[in-house]
Structure formats: structure tokens, C-alpha cells
Write a structure and sequence with these properties.
The structure holds two protein chains of two kinds. Chain A is mainly beta. Helices cover 0% and strands 55% of the residues of chain A. Chain A contains no helices and eleven strands. Chain B is an all-beta fold. In chain B, 0% of the residues lie in helices and 54% in strands. Chain B has no helices and eleven strands. In chain B, strands 2, 4, 5, 9, 10 and 11 form a six-stranded mixed β-sheet that branches. In chain B, strand 7 and strand 8 form a beta hairpin. The chains are: A mainly beta, B mainly beta. At the A-B interface, strand 5, strand 9 and strand 10 of A face strand 5 of B.
């Protein structure tokens, strides 16, 4: 079991650029979650999928953020255009129903 | 939204001491999560519990559903236990992991 794999680990970009974060969940897990962690707000749920279908995206901050899960083994979180206030650590996690979460190592995003 | 409060926010103790971290929440839940975040940033799920007590090595988690309170205990604490411990509870209608609300975390430092 390779665990949840996120890429890149670090991303530094300029304001206005498009950023794409990637996640490969654990095989067999039917839930996938995207979280954002900042010093000010802690961990926040952005969006989650069940069986590749987005169930709740009410945590997505604004239309600049979008997420997709084209198949059971891949998801992306895209920010376009990026802004300095998007700087944070973005975590992907996966799980089975009513089972513990498995987190990726996170992507540290810095927007200058 | 379920309100989650953790205490203390920071805790420093000597190696070998018994540690207790508390978590209170406002609305009845199906399960509560304890997470550990190491200085490197990775997040690990320690426990997911809905009643009673669970034990894993030197870590013990308890929950009192009636009082809406959970505790995480560490026996014979060790410097490698130094981390941020986060409590999380699901939304009211959720089954287990959906729409988790996270506590602000307890930063634990164990001094050799």
C-alpha cells in the first residue's frame, strides 16, 4: 500500500498563474477529500468525492477553485488565477465509508 | 456546524509524564477522529471512535457521547510524541468522515 500520493510537494508560483495539484488515492477507497491548512484557519474541507462524484463543494472558496476526479485513481485541484491568499498547505485524503482517513503528504503552495 | 474545542492549546511536559488532551463538541456525532501532525507536516489518523475507549500502544482515546467529550491520553510520553494533536468531528447528518470540523489542535512538546 503506497498510501495517498500527492504532487508536487512544493509549488511556488506568481499571482495570476494557474496551479494544478494532483492526488492519487489508495486503491479501493471510495471517498476522496481535499483540505486546505493555514495558520489562521487551520484545516478546512474544500470538497469531497464519493465514487468519483463531487458530493459537497461548499468549502471551495470561490470560482477560481475547481476540482475533478476523472477516475477512481486520480483527482486534481486547480486554482486559476492564483492569488497570494491561496498560499497554504493542501492535503488530499482518502477513505472507505466510516473508516479512518489516510492523508497524503500535502502540497505547500506559495503564491507571490 | 459542529463546534469543536480542544484544550490545552499548548502543552509541554517531561519525558515519561502522562499526557491528557481534551476535545469537546457541540452536536451529537456518529464518530470522532484524533489526528497527529508531526513537525514535518504529515497527518496521521490515530483513532476513529464512536463509543467507549480504544488503545493503540501508549495511546488511549476515550469518548463520552452523553457529555460530548473525548480525551486522548499518552502514557510514558517520549520526545517522539511531540506533535500537534487534532480532534475532528463530522457534520450532524454525516456518517463518519464527511464534512469534518477540525479543532485548532494541541501542540505537545515532550522534553527529554
Amino acid at each position: 500500500d503506497a498510501g495517498v500520493i500527492q504532487s508536487p510537494r512544493h509549488e511556488v508560483t506568481e499571482m495570476g498563474q494557474e496551479v494544478t495539484l494532483r492526488c492519487k488515492p489508495i486503491s479501493g477507497h471510495d471517498y476522496l477529500f481535499w483540505y486546505r491548512q493555514t495558520m489562521m484557519r487551520g484545516l478546512e474541507l474544500l470538497i469531497y468525492f464519493n465514487n468519483n462524484v463531487p458530493i459537497d463543494d461548499s468549502g471551495m472558496p470561490e470560482d477560481r477553485f475547481s476540482a475533478k476526479m476523472p477516475n477512481a485513481s486520480f483527482s486534481t485541484l486547480k486554482i486559476q488565477p492564483s492569488e497570494p491568499r491561496d498560499s497554504a498547505v493542501y492535503f488530499c485524503a482518502s477513505s472507505r465509508l466510516k473508516s479512518p482517513l489516510h492523508f497524503g503528504n500535502g502540497t505547500r503552495l506559495t503564491v507571490t | 456546524k459542529n463546534e469543536v474545542e480542544q484544550s490545552p492549546q499548548n502543552l509541554t511536559a517531561q519525558e515519561g509524564e502522562f499526557i491528557t488532551i481534551n476535545c469537546s463538541y457541540s452536536v451529537g456525532i456518529s464518530a470522532l477522529h484524533w489526528l497527529q501532525q508531526h513537525p514535518g507536516g504529515g497527518i496521521v489518523s490515530l483513532f476513529m471512535l464512536s463509543s467507549g475507549k480504544k488503545k493503540h500502544g501508549r495511546l488511549i482515546a476515550t469518548i463520552n457521547i452523553q457529555e460530548k467529550h473525548s480525551s486522548l491520553h499518552i502514557t510514558a510520553s517520549h520526545p517522539r510524541d511531540s506533535a500537534v494533536y487534532i480532534c475532528a468531528v463530522p457534520g450532524v447528518k454525516a456518517g463518519g468522515n464527511e464534512k469534518l470540523t477540525f479543532g485548532t489542535g494541541t501542540r505537545l512538546t515532550i522534553i527529554p
